[in-house]
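Submission sheet (multi-component)
Chains listed below:
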Amino acid sequence: MTGLSLIAAAVFASGASSKTVASSVKKGGTLNVNLADTDVDFTDPALAYFVYSLQITQITCSNLVVYPDKPAPQGSIPVPEGATALPVVSKNGRSYTFTIRNNLKFADGKPVTAANYAFAFNRMLNPDINSPATQYMHEIVGADDVLNKKAKTASGLVVKGNKLTINLTKARPDFLDILAFPFFCPLPTNTPVTASGVNTFPGSGPYTITSRTPNRQIVLQVNKFYNGTRPHNFDKIVFTPNVDLNQSLLQVKSGQADYDAAGLPPTAHADLAKQYGINKGQYWVNHQLVTDYLTLRTDRGPLMDVNLRKAINWAIDRPQFLRARGAFAGVRDDQLLPPGFPGYKDLKIYSYKGANVEQAKKFLAKSTTCKDGCKLTLYNGNSGAFATQGQILQYNLKQIGIDLSIQQFTRSVEHTKCGTKSEQFDICIEAWGSDYPDAVTFIDPLLNGRNIVETNNNNEAYFNNPKINEMIDEADTATGDARAALFVKIDQIAQLQYAPYAPFLHRNDRQLISSRLDPKCYVYQPVIQHMDLAAACLK
Amino acid sequence: MIQYLIRRLLWAIVLFLVVTFVTYVIFFLVPAHPERAVAGRNAGPEDIKRAAHFIGVDRPVYVQYGRFLKRLVIDRSLGFSFATRQQENDIIFAAAPVTASLVIGGAILWLSISIPVGVLAALRPRSLLDRLSTVVVLIGISAHPVFIGLIASYFFGYKLGWFPITGYCDVFSPSTGCGGLWAWFHHLVLPWVTFAILFAAFYVRFIRSSVLDTVNEDYVRTARAKGASERTVIVKHVLRNAMLPVVTILGLDVSVALGGAIFTESVYGLPGLGLITRQSLSNFDLPTIQAVVVFATLVIIVVSLLVDLLYAAIDPRIRVV
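Outcome: structure written.
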């Protein structure tokens, strides 16, 4: 077994990630969480979208359905929380009826009713708050009318007593996943609708936010009215934003902080693994739903030739690309869908072990646009692993006679330029992460050609293939295992036959927790992709 | 004097307009679409268009700049952040006292170090003290504040536990778990030292050179010839004149110390203007960048004006017309 296999085995077999939490755990105390070099964007559930913000809203909200505070795979499957059971879904899949639990309460002691959910959903649609959640709400009947100021509330949200019915314009098999996302959090009906959102609101989950001073501190207290089944071991959780990454590591090592949600210094991982072991109590490595890849421009230039795109897929040295991100940064791969998605299958299409120059040259020889060598342009980020990976790519392509010119920009500029159709580039180095574990969140933005517009594209390969588009439509109507299998098939066909991308790794999340915390309470929430704060406890 | 003041104020307004407009134009020349982040990663064209309208970036640059000026002059508002949607006035007013604590405390520390060392080094050139100060100055100038900060917090914070590794406490009405004069002081000792080392090094060299120049002036020789004591000669004749350029440069350094504050605030997690600047640059948060620019410009203009007036008051040879 190779070193990498051992790491992969350790990740898959991760102690607490696959254990159930012990029944008797220590209650009380304060959990101190740092946020290195950043603050949350918002704590208002309608606006909170940073990963760290979602960690907070996830434990302060009792959505109709929630992702359980459990490791994968249970943690990826929505279960009823605010609702008494999973919804009654109409035969055409366009109507979801939930019955609200009658003993559910906000942190101020007031009951949570169906009206609180409907209010929160309409609040997100209100143009005055401009919530990013609207990207997932267009299928609710009347949602676009509210967004376009033609109505105050969406007609598709119907409250009758303790029942909430949500009517959709078309079936969305991933709708429960959407509702489990922390955006869809019940709120008191007097919550202000303001562009800046609210810093505090009465929580309905195991915790409630009692104070937030932007850039300084966020304090969560246990919700004493919470009577659900989710864990809530600490009395208090204190977030300290904007701590320097290196200082934060010192704090966690010394027990002044318990964990940094924003990460660790990239150079620290090898030493941390040596010192604490992997997944043995303090240093944890878990899979994220994130894939790093090269976008290979299919609509212009030499890369219009599929053989050239395949040649690049064979030519790149995936282990080197992975090493650029530091120790235990992820697993190499050649497909878009990462492990952790339902139905994940290791497709093994191209070379994992390193560059396969011979195979690459075979495809290059078949190429009509680059048979005797050619010049390509890479738009790339100018810092961190992206910059290093750009140089690795340049070297890899040189081995098969391709001259790569690198143009570097700050990451946000590079991302914008790569998303602009008129830009004159051939390759970009990008990463895509998922909001929830349904393959449509990867396959549709990256492979559905009908989404391509002039600017702000996610499909930066500008790949538009009618066959694949049709397959996406078909898969998006399926449910359960069939749905997962269809999306995996699309990924396979796209990569094998058309190679619009050259995926090279799926990222890991690497965390260090303090020695104060009990490892048996450590749960990696696979959808929020972080330690589950509600489940954490002291030794 | 009034004429001078009016002229200075008019130039200040021109400077302000130029600085803010250039910042605006630079931002628009850089093709980063903040509306994309506002709308969410899976947002469609309509969502992105709506987000662009919401944050006001769907209008031509001159219209946006005009609206910015109108808001600033009439509403006295710096607008709201694209990234966090907080009022910029609130962001600046929360961050400015932190930076002021760092810069003023740091300035006191660097002057406390550099004046005695610089003067003694000048009065005893090529002595052991002078050579030692040269070595310390070289280290101070060469070592980056991030490096000094990380080393200081590792030894004095993590290993010895004398000072907090990171964080800030308010003196009055604490917004976090800690507060009060002692907590504020305790949390700022390491940042002050880190911030002051670079400037102290510059000032030692600067003061040494200024005192050396002044010591050889005719009026110093005259004072000695008249029988004044060495103490009187040094304090009244040498130091008073040698400190004139120091006052000028101190005024400028304190107002432009924001640059140094970015590093120190980042290392120690101080929620000041430097940290906000760094965050807003990485988020392409134009209103916050603009708010910091406006604030820094105003500080520089006001401090420069005060220094000029103070300079005129200290040195009667200077006449303002």
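Remark: The mean pLDDT of chain B is 84.
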